[in-house]
Amino acid sequence: MTTESQSTQTAAGQPAEGNAAPTIQIPRVLTVKELGELMSLSPVEVIKDLMKNGVMATINQNIDYDTAAIVAHDLGFEPKEAAVEEVAEEAPEPPKGVAAEEEEDASALKPRPPVVAVLGHVDHGKTSLLDAIRKTDVVSGEAGGITQHIGAYQVETKGQRISFLDTPGHAAFTAMRARGAQVTDLAVVVIAADDGIMPQTKEAIDHARAAGIPIVVAITKIDLESANPDRVKQQLAGLDLNVEEYGGDVICVPVSAKTGDGLDTLLENILVAAEVLELRANPDRAARGTVIEAEMDRNRGPLATVLVETGTLRVGDVVVVGKTWGRTKAMFDEHGQRIKSVGPGEPAAVLGLQEVPQAGDVLTVVSNDKTARKIVVQLQREAEAAAVHVQPHVTLDTLFGAISAGKVKELNLILKTDVQGSIEPIRQSLERLSNDEVRVKIIHAASGAVTESDVMLAIASEGMVIAFNASEEPGAERLVQQSGIEIRHFSVIYHITEDVEKALQGMLDPVYIDVIKGKAEVRQVFQMKRKGQVAGCYVTEGTIAIDDLAHLFRGEEMIADTKVTSLRRFQEEVREVQVGTECGFTLEGVKDFQEGDLVEFYRRKRER
Ligand code: GDP
Fold first, then answer.
1. What is the distance in A from the centroid of ligand 1 to the CA of 123?
2. Which of 163, 235, 361, 597 fits a disulfide with 522 by CB distance 3.0 to 4.6 angstroms?
3. pLDDT (tens digit, 9 = 90+) per residue, 443-453?
4. 3-class secondary structure for 105-156?
5. E strand or H helix at 296
6. d(CA 155, CA 605)
7. Which residue lies with its CA nearest to atom 20 of ligand 1?
8. What are the residues facing 446 on neighbouring strands?
9. Nearest residue (CA) to ligand 1, atom 18
């Protein structure tokens, strides 16, 4: 490794900013208007910047510190937290998923069925496999009823149950993860025996790996004459998924959805892989689960399929789900049969909610209606602030700070390149940058444009996208706008490693762009005793504020690049003047204003 350990150690490794940004103290919560005032900027500037970060806000909307800090930073300020002592002891988020079980008494924990997602390339047979597996279920054969798509189903094999998520593909899988819901325990990656590993197969593998869940490979369509499972195994080895024949322990099962061959073996192997995970939960407690699908049923009202993670959900339970609540009126399994209760690792369609929740919403059982209502009101209030919460995602510029604060131990990168041949050299040179504090990890690399799925993976993995001569698909761009995930574009390989290395050491020079805020025309020049020359002006566009920077133009020529040193309206010192008004100002170092001079007022905005 070539980094100079010295520079990674010193606190003085903060970005060397050529133009020191003015510091502002921001409280934990403040309104858009108040933030504007802190920066002597119009609230419109704040709203515009929030919009740029994918957030729509009104002038009186409350925003939290993190969001305000991003806006302040964007507008050229150095944000500081005003009330530091309160922030340290923030209550943690309600526990989610398996982690919550740590607090449980070990003796209360019982094995639960694994939750499995089926991923793979389009047309490789995911849906067919899910259908075929469903048909193997003896219990469902007996149950009768019409099979319904509720988003998940269960099969029983050798007396043990497995829950399958019924929406195949890694897009749905990673979208749930991006929303903070980690419901899947294991991924089955489907590869058609006649087609082999394709781009989306790789993507599926990378998405499963990024989620940190084990992979079971199903080589499907083995009934076809053109099937070549050995080639698939060989290709898998190339992706570091070594099956037994290649000296590894990756489970790989040849199957046919058409003939049913291998399905039992696949299910058995899923159970074996799940056993290693020792999935346990306490069924004897109030339930908590995750919504995996929800819709408005025309006849029955809001209907949500919930996958229970812990506890047992019963008919009659009062639940809070996302931002809504309800009393479970009835529950159904995937055969449309009414069920009275549903335990850990099991799905059920739930009726009785006040509104339709969203996929990824957490369900919790509470003691009564009153509590539920109270929580929901509180959640709705928080949601209002959260709606304008800009997630401070990791970017190359914030990376060093995040590493220093111990928040980032791995830099998860998604690499997209124009040609396949660029991937390996870039991957190697980037991974070589790993040091003691942080590991640089390429979690997915492929050639082609940056897709929505790439951005989703970056969100779910707290990572960022490196695009080497690669464009962005519109869907990706939209998601970037909403999420604040960084896509960094490069056209020279050397620049990628150089920038990432600098970012790791906190030495990335920021790049600023000038944002014009207002314009004024000099109509009169006054000579003041102490202040020197004051320009009497008319504001022709936007606003002018006391700490703006300014370009002074005479005709076409810019004769000064300076800053405002005083601003008056009539005799009053003011912080800001608006378009259509007259004012007087002085500019640092300018002693020879002339009538007809034009002044452009601007802020220096940090671009990166
Ligand atoms: P998905 O896009 O991955 O969900 O793929 P589908 O399940 O829709 O299957 C794509 C095509 O492959 C369909 O025409 C299926 O009939 C066919 N197919 C899927 N599994 C098998 C199989 O095991 N054997 C054969 N012969 N065809 C299959």
1. 6
2. 597
3. 999 999 999 99
4. CHHHCEECCCEEEEEECCCCCHHHHHHHHHHHCHHHHHHCCCCCCCCEEEEE
5. strand 288-297
6. 57
7. 125
8. 416
9. 125
